[in-house]
Amino acid sequence: MTTDQMLKFVTRQQRTPTKRSAGDRRADFEEIYEQYKPAEASAQAGRCSQCGVPFCQIHCPLQNNIPDWLMLTAEGRLEEAYEVSAATNTFPEVCGRICPQDRLCEGNCVIEQSGHGTVTIGSVEKYITDTAWEEGWVKPIRPKRERPESIGIIGAGPGGLAAADKLRRRGYEVHVYDCYDRVGGLMVYGIPNFKLEKEVVQRRADWLADGGIQFHLNCRVGEDITFAELRDKHDAVLIATGVYKARDLAVPGRGLGNVIPAMDYLTASNRVGLGDAVPEFENGSLNAEGKNVVVIGGGDTAMDCVRTAIRQGAKSVKCLYRRDKLNMPGSQREVQNAEEEGVQFVWLTAPEAFVGDSDVTGVRSVQMRLGRPDATGRRSPKPVDGSTEVHDCDLAILALGFDPEDLPGMFGDPDLPVTRWGTVRVDHRTKMTGLDGVFAAGDIVRGASLVVWAIRDGRDAAASIHEFIQARATAGAAAAE
């Protein structure tokens, strides 16, 4: 075959994978999109225009070689397509499912801008990698030679695992430490199954372990092992903890019962799906069944919460957001999916107080209007006088974003440098902190962001760690002469 299979966007309409009906998907936590059939994937990949300047690739944090693996898919060369995809991405099957493609690759697709409908990049990426697993093309890491140095990585989320993958390929002994009892971090405990089934993450975790990466779970740095011990034990240490401290809302009634952080709610739901016993879910405090649920926030975490509440059998689900639909930070596709499933969005609305006696019974809100743009370019919301309203609420979920935890305090090392926001301070060229041989990457450096950015940062940090080890070895050899 030749590239004659490409540039079919004029004669071939965009077709996304079949999406299950809203009624069906409200009843379970299974992924909402079906898999492409081979002919469908090939046909949709063939819509790519093979741009001379591929804006899809430019706007991908990983700089994935998207036009190349689309062409290979269109030609039926799927094993080669997987090799190209996996060369730049440790988790292509995850990114194909959860990346906000409408804001990244697909949103910047040239044929989307010309009005023909974007190439379905994420769905093809998912198809390629799922097929690779089914066909046995995904092989464990086997370094060409083993190195004597060891690397300690704190955090088994996407950033830490991406770094572990790259370092292990170079032959390093890699140890990953995580406070949770499973590998995957946010991908396991924060993202619901209807977006990312946990078997997908576990499959990749098993692959990393088969490649020789050693995991130390239920291990809290600062408690079960000290930060100083880690530094003594390993030739370099990477901090990739992510950010999990929930932003709060300082309004009257915040102390009422059943006003909870989003991550507590999502973690409980995911643990139940994994078969764990969760007393807070069983007694109803972290279960939306039969309740009027109000979620406050407009990001992807808020979308995860509202759609989880629908599946748990909530009586009603509202999402309050202080800006309008066009200015919300979450994926527009997620908003559409939530609306289809029965979520009510209350735009330009901000909470003023939680009302109730011991437990919350309502959220008092005020209508907002968008004023002049702020320093970021977004229009600032301003309250409208006399526009108060009370929304019935038995369970209020705060999805307002996340801040870093106090790592110097947790790790017992006040010398670990942090910014005024609490993120770890690094040299952004090398990813190294002010402590020799200690690196940091992902959300703990950049703040709460996307999984794909954590993967990018972890891979970049791995390259810097290798350079650091090499430079130290060269310096040691020169000193010995």
TrEMBL record:
Superkingdom per UniProt: Bacteria
KW S-adenosyl-L-methionine (keyword) present: no
Domain FAD/NAD(P)-binding residue range list: 152-458
Keyword 4Fe-4S: yes
Recorded GO MF terms: 4 iron, 4 sulfur cluster binding; metal ion binding; oxidoreductase activity
Compositionally biased spans, kind Polar residues: 1-16
Pfam families the UniProt entry points to: Fer4_20, Pyr_redox_2
Signal peptide: none
Cofactor(s) this protein cannot do without: [4Fe-4S] cluster
Location of the Dihydroprymidine dehydrogenase domain: 26-136
Disordered: annotated segments: 1-25
Keywords: 4Fe-4S, Iron, Iron-sulfur, Metal-binding, NADP, Oxidoreductase
InterPro entries (alphabetical): DPD_II, FAD/NAD-bd_sf, FAD/NAD-binding_dom, GltD-like, Helical_ferredxn
Protein name: NAD(P)-dependent oxidoreductase
Organism of derivation: Hwanghaeella grinnelliae
